[in-house]
Design goal:
By secondary structure, the protein is of the alpha+beta class. About 15% of the residues lie in helices and about 35% in strands. The longest helix has 15 residues.
């Protein structure tokens, strides 16, 4: 199994489900997390209902570079190398 290329990761799709709602600034999904609790000889299924919100508009972000040597310098060099290969960070 091969790894996906960088180009294939930039894909837009839409989920059609009664548990997903799209708004202009966010996507809201309803999810039921199911688990089982065992208490002695009694087994009970439990469902925890979750509501997950995802922003569709990216906030403004910045880059903070600290240090020039050691681990921070290595991280900075790797970041700059990846930027040269047009790796998209979302």
């Amino acid at each position: 199994m091969s790894s996906p290329s960088v180009e294939s990761l930039d894909v837009t799709f839409k989920v059609e489900s009664p548990n997903v709602e799209y708004f202009s600034d966010k996507i809201v999904a309803k999810y039921g997390y199911e688990t089982t609790v065992v208490d002695g000889t009694t087994v009970r299924p439990i469902t925890t209902n979750l509501q997950i919100q995802t922003q569709t508009r990216l906030p403004r972000t910045g880059v903070l570079l600290v240090g020039i040597g050691g681990n921070n310098g290595s991280t900075c060099k790797l970041y700059l190398k990846n930027m040269k290969t047009l790796l998209k960070i979302h």
